[in-house]
Design brief:
mainly alpha; 4 helices
């Protein structure tokens, strides 16, 4: 992986962003014949969908409960 990408990921991690699961347009283009813009739209719509966001928050709550973390 290029140093610039690693540096950018490290900066984001230090700022509190979760960077262990990043998607790239190539993930779409490996499966579908599309240009960069269409691949980006696929990712944008998938990752920002209400269903995915709700599911992530549900899982965060479930895992926090499993770890016995207290609500604020």
């Amino acid at each position: 992986m290029r140093k610039e990408i690693n540096d950018a990921k490290e900066l984001l991690r230090k700022e509190g962003y979760y960077i262990s699961n990043l998607w790239r347009i190539w993930d779409v283009q490996e499966r579908y014949d599309c240009d960069d813009d269409d691949a980006y739209e696929v990712l944008d719509r998938a990752v920002s969908s209400e269903y995915i966001q709700e599911r992530i928050f549900e899982l965060i709550n479930d895992i926090a409960e499993d770890l016995e973390l207290k609500d604020k």
